[in-house]
Every structure is written in structure tokens, then in C-alpha cells.
Design goal:
The chain has 17 helices and 4 strands. It is mainly alpha-helical. Strands 1-4 form a two-stranded antiparallel sheet. Strands 2-3 form a two-stranded antiparallel sheet.
Length: 370
């Protein structure tokens, strides 16, 4: 989970006190000379009137949240159990409610306190893992990549801790499998679902895991189809590649990479209109990449749509200002538009970036001779 930081230190509102003699609060017996943590709240200093079940329990749980291996941990847990025997159930329910309401920081504090109070219980770490997933999703929706990554990493660390738990905790494998599937780590997800099926006695969840495994197997088959199509196109078997990628698109129409492969293959065959349509679909689905823009621009160029070709090449150049392939194509486009001086400028720029670029060199000689 998160690395040690200021937030993992014992809060400043916690003070440790030592009693001169044995003292009882409710069912709890406080021993003399053993320091016990008390929550001050907004008070500046401790006085004996603060020694109440609430302040004592709060102080202990906040200490155990950051120091579950505290040397007096067993004694502290005994005090809390004597004061509030049902505190685990109450706090767990409160933490879940806080998480549902989006109060993630409060929920985190509760689940950390429970994990410190009952370090042998994997369910509290699982609650933390699920919470971190929710928190990461929140920041993903709010376009905060840094915090999305932070809480995704926290969830990953919590799941890795759970997967090593002794004895094995089946639900950890179930939730972790979905977590890794969402991270596109499908092989890890398959392994975890398979282990869960072997471990669990929960028939409902076992069926869900089996269904998930079937879907992952289907996805794996689709991935193989995608790879086969790519290899076919790369090896000059464009028609076979188009056949394979169309089969893939029947099952996965929302994958922009597949539309790019289709457009690439069609362009290589000289089917520029079909290529342009497929590449436009790739861009619509989020494939705003240099190679997609470049392939689209070539199709547009061959169809005589020079303005559209130029727009896509300029978008590609913004993404990679020193991409010689894009600059060369701008030169080719300028030449087609009879802007010869501009074309020379593009090819000279390519040679400045790569003196060994034979295409740019040949195009410059052609321009000079004409």
C-alpha cells in the first residue's frame, strides 16, 4: 500500500499517558505504568476528564492503524474489546457506508484501524483493496492520472499482500482476478480465477468465476485473431489480413487498433476510400495516434483531398515534431500541390534530422531536376 509518510505517523492529537495506579473504565482495566494512547481531539492538553471510552478507543485504534506491531498492541486490543465488544462489525459497516458515499479518506482510516486492530483478519485488507479501486476509478473519471495511478498501485499492493495470506483467503483471489482483468493483465486474471474455483465453497461465486474464465478464453482467441491479422498484413498478405480482422471486428467493434489494421491493409491494396473510412473509425474510437493520422493522410492524399491530408499530417507532427516520416509526407503532399519550395524545405528538414534518409535525398534531387 502507500509508502510510509507523514500521514502514516501517529497523529499529533494522540497523547500517551501513564496512570499511577490501576484504573477501571467500564469493563476495561487499565494497568499502571503502561503508556496508553488517548485522543485529545481539539483540546490542547490532557486532563483526567478526557479518560473516557470514546477517547481511549479512538486513540488506540489510530495508533494500531499505523503501528499494528506496537509492543503493547495486544494489551491495547484487550482494552478496546472490553469497552466495545462489537466494534469490528460496527466500524466495518460504517466504513462501507462511507466508501459508498464517496468519503474515501474516512473509509480508509476506518479500514486501516480495523486492519491494525485485527491483523489476522484478511477481510479488512480486502476492504482496503476494494476501496482503493473505487478511489482510483473516481480519479480516472475526474482525469487525474497521477492520483488514479497512486490508488491503483495501492490496490495492487493490497491484493499482493492478500494473495500471500496464510491460510489462503478465497475472496482475495476472486476480487484480485477482476482487478487484474480491468488492468488488462488477462493471464494473471485467468490464473487467479482458476485458483479461486479450486478454493471456494461459494457456488454462486464459483459460477461467476467460471463464466469470467470462459469470457477470458474467448478474448484470448480474439487476441490471437488480431495478432494473426497483423502478421498477415505485415508479410504482404493484405487480403488474408482483412478477412481475419473483419472476423475480429464482428466480436470487438469498439477496438480502434482493429480499425487501424483494416485501414492500413486497405491502403496497401490501393483501396483508399475504404482505408480512409476505416481509419476515420479508428480515430473516432480514440486512436488519435501518429501512425493512424499518417495512414489516413495518405488515403486522403491519393483521393485528392489535399486539405484533409494536410490537417492529419499536422496533427501527427504536433504529437511527434521530429518524426521524419511525417515530415517527408508533408513534402510529398506539398509537391503534389505544386508548392515546390515548401516541399524542398520539408525534405531538407528531414535530412537535417537524418542525413542518411534516402527517400528525402531522392525527392530533393527529383525536385532540383524538375
Amino acid at each position: 500500500m502507500t509508502q510510509k509518510s507523514d500521514r502514516d505517523a501517529i497523529p499529533e492529537t494522540i497523547v500517551f499517558i501513564q496512570l499511577p495506579k490501576q484504573f477501571s473504565i467500564g469493563e476495561a482495566i487499565l494497568l499502571p505504568d503502561v503508556p496508553i494512547p488517548v485522543e485529545l481531539g481539539t483540546a490542547k492538553e490532557f486532563d483526567v476528564t478526557m479518560l473516557k471510552p470514546e477517547s481511549l478507543t479512538s486513540g488506540i485504534l489510530r495508533v494500531l492503524a499505523v503501528q499494528p506491531d506496537h509492543p503493547h498492541g495486544a494489551y491495547y486490543r484487550k482494552i478496546v474489546h472490553a469497552l466495545y465488544p462489537d466494534i469490528t462489525i460496527e466500524l466495518a459497516n460504517e466504513g462501507i457506508l462511507q466508501a459508498r458515499d464517496g468519503n474515501y479518506g474516512v473509509a480508509e482510516n476506518i479500514f486501516k484501524a480495523l486492519a491494525g486492530y485485527e491483523p489476522e483478519e484478511a477481510k479488512h485488507v480486502l476492504n482496503l483493496a476494494v476501496l482503493y479501486e473505487q478511489w482510483a476509478e473516481y480519479y480516472a473519471k475526474n482525469d487525474n492520472e497521477e492520483l488514479r495511478t497512486l490508488y491503483t498501485d495501492n490496490a495492487h499492493d493490497a491484493y499482493e499482500q492478500l494473495l500471500l495470506w496464510e491460510p489462503a483467503f478465497p475472496d482475495a483471489f476472486f476480487n484480485a482476478a477482476y482487478f487484474y482483468a480491468n488492468q488488462n493483465n488477462f493471464e494473471r486474471a485467468k490464473s487467479l480465477f482458476t485458483t479461486f474455483v479450486q478454493l471456494t465453497n461459494n457456488e454462486e461465486k464459483r459460477e461467476k468465476a467460471k463464466n469470467a474464465l470462459a469470457k477470458l478464453a474467448e478474448r484470448s482467441a480474439h487476441d490471437d485473431l488480431f495478432k494473426e491479422a497483423y502478421d498477415a498484413i505485415k508479410m504482404g498478405r493484405e487480403e488474408k489480413g482483412i478477412e481475419l480482422i473483419n472476423k475480429f471486428l464482428e466480436h470487438e467493434p469498439g477496438v480502434w487498433n482493429a480499425w487501424f489494421l483494416l485501414g492500413w491493409a486497405q491502403r496497401r491494396l490501393g483501396n483508399y476510400d475504404a482505408g480512409k473510412q476505416a481509419l476515420a473509425k479508428a480515430i473516432e474510437l480514440g486512436g488519435a495516434m501518429v501512425d493512424v493520422y499518417n495512414e489516413y493522410s495518405i488515403c486522403a492524399m491519393e483521393l485528392g483531398d489535399f486539405s484533409e491530408s494536410r490537417k492529419k499530417l499536422e496533427l501527427a507532427l504536433k504529437l511527434e515534431p521530429e518524426n521524419t516520416k511525417i515530415i517527408s509526407n508533408l513534402g510529398v503532399l506539398a509537391q503534389k500541390m505544386k508548392n515546390y519550395d515548401e516541399a524542398r524545405g520539408f525534405f531538407m528538414t528531414v535530412l537535417e534530422l537524418d542525413p542518411h534518409d534516402t527517400l528525402a535525398e531522392a525527392m530533393l534531387k527529383k525536385l532540383q531536376s524538375s
